[in-house]
């Protein structure tokens, strides 16, 4: 029922704008409005804080179905989970009450600020600092590649509180867009997900109350990594949705397109490509849904499975979207058809929330 509801909504209210959002590189306002109106923008927020209380699998299905029509828009529910999960996992009751309510209502979005210009795969090498001063912390630094920066009201920011301890000297904080000293860089000009704003976040003497710290001092990096265990599965879901969208489009196209006097769907070479695409998508789906169940239960092998799902599904998305372009021939290579957008959008799923090389490091360290 959830899938039917979100698919109908995505096709009616999000798909019609997907090409324009990409072409104009603009925030998908129509998608945000439609998702908020239907309480699908942050389904993961627990009921006690005013949310829908969706489990990890339901959240995955929402993201998958939005990504099937518009990958940029799927970053609204996905990043709302990414940004707020540190608060849900490790935040105080006061922080949860203060920040999850507006998120659940659709009054605020939540971003996640871990990466920096010189600290990507090696996120623990970050330089942003938070220095205690009485009842406050004062933050200084630059966060890079922050999805929905400028649009989100709230940011989970990881910063160094004790430089001598590397990852154990990092703490997490909630920073608000309205805090003095917070500003944003120009939107990055990207290959894909052009509708999803990616900007730097500048923290210039940002003074915040000490109780905005998420969990204890020095636990921020652990919280950030624990968050990724759960949210890599949402990137797998995004990849899965992009791949399914490309397959669905190509499936229709090959029945219409005629060469050599018949529909190209009648050629076995084409049929085999479609069969491989569908097989890979289904394998990615099974891995992703199993990982979502592990996320929900908190299984001990979640770290492996989440990394495996993200890595596998994103590689599948890249392969399937590339094949979809191939199936449309020259038409597939133009922006008159959606598969070239899907191919460009798929690429990011192999890069963010840890590149697929990093996922392989994570898997190798956590072999089942
Ligand atoms: C569009 C977009 C949105 C993003 N959104 C967010 C966000 O909301 N919040 C956030 O915090 N970050 C975000 N990121 C950052 C993203 O997670 C990083 O770009 C990513 O983790 C890679 O870091 P890097 O770009 O510094 O690459 P690098 O770490 O410099 O990596 C360069 C290459 O080296 C490889 N490499 C690095 N180390 C190793 C190793 N040990 N072994 C093998 N290979 C290695 C990498 O796999 C990659 O191929 C986003 C990025 C983009 C592009």
Blueprint of the fold:
Layout (H helix, E strand, L loop, with lengths): L1 H22 L5 H9 L18 H14 L1 H20 L2 H13 L4 E4 L15 E5 L2 E12 L6 E7 L9 E7 L5 E3 L13 E12 L3 E2 L5 H37 L1 E2 L2 E2 L4 H30 L4 H26 L1 H4 L6 H11 L6 H10 L3
Parallel strand pairs: 1-4
Antiparallel strand pairs: 2-3, 3-7, 4-5, 5-8, 6-7, 9-10
The chain binds flavin-adenine dinucleotide.
Main attributes?
four-stranded mixed sheet; four-stranded antiparallel sheet; single chain; 368 residues; alpha+beta; binds flavin-adenine dinucleotide
End-to-end separation: 34 Å
Spans with pLDDT under 50 lasting ≥5 residues? Answer: none
Strand order of the largest sheet: 1-4-5-8
Q: Tell me the radius of gyration.
A: 21 Å
Question: What is the percentage of strand-forming residues?
Answer: 15-25%
Shape: elongated
Q: Which hetero compounds are present in the coordinates?
A: flavin-adenine dinucleotide
Number of strands: 10
**H/E series, N to C?**
HHHHHEEEEEEEEHEEHHHHH
Main sheet, how many strands, which sense, barrel? 4 strands, mixed
Structural class of the secondary structure composition? alpha+beta
Number of helices: 11
Overall average pLDDT? 98
């Amino acid at each position: 029922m959830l899938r039917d509801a979100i698919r109908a909504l995505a096709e009616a209210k999000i798909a019609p704008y997907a090409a324009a959002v990409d072409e104009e590189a603009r925030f998908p306002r129509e998608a945000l409005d439609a998702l908020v109106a239907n309480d699908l923008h942050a389904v993961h927020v627990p009921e006690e804080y005013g949310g829908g209380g969706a489990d990890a699998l339901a959240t995955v299905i929402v993201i998958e179905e939005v990504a099937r029509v518009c990958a940029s828009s799927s970053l609204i529910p996905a990043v709302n989970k990414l940004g707020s999960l540190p608060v849900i996992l490790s935040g105080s009751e006061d922080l949860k009450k203060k920040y999850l309510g507006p998120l659940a209502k659709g009054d605020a979005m939540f971003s996640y600020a871990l990466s920096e210009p010189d600290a990507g795969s090696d996120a623990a090498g970050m330089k942003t600092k938070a220095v205690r001063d009485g009842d406050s912390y004062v933050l200084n630094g630059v966060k890079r590649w922050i999805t929905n920066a400028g649009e989100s009201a709230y940011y989970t920011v990881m910063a160094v509180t004790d430089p001598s301890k590397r990852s154990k000297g990092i703490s997490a904080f909630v920073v608000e867009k309205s805090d003095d000293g917070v500003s944003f860089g120009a939107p990055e000009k990207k290959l894909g997900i052009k509708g999803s704003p990616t900007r730097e976040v500048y923290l210039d003497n940002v003074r915040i109350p000490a109780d905005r710290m998420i969990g204890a001092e020095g636990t921020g990096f652990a919280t950030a990594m624990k968050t990724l265990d759960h949210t890599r599965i949402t990137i797998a879901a995004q990849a899965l949705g992009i791949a399914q969208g490309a397959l669905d489009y190509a499936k229709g196209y090959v029945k219409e397109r005629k060469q050599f006097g018949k529909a190209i769907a009648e050629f076995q070479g084409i049929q085999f490509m479609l069969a491989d695409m569908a097989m890979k998508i289904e394998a990615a789906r099974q891995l992703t849904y199993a990982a979502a169940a592990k996320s929900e239960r908190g299984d001990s092998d979640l770290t492996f499975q989440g990394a495996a799902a993200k890595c596998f599904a994103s590689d599948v998305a890249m392969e399937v979207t590339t094949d979809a372009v191939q199936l449309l021939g020259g038409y597939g290579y133009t922006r008159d058809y959606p598969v070239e957008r899907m191919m460009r959008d798929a690429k990011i799923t192999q890069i963010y929330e840890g590149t697929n090389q990093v996922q392989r490091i994570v898997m190798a360290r956590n072999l089942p």
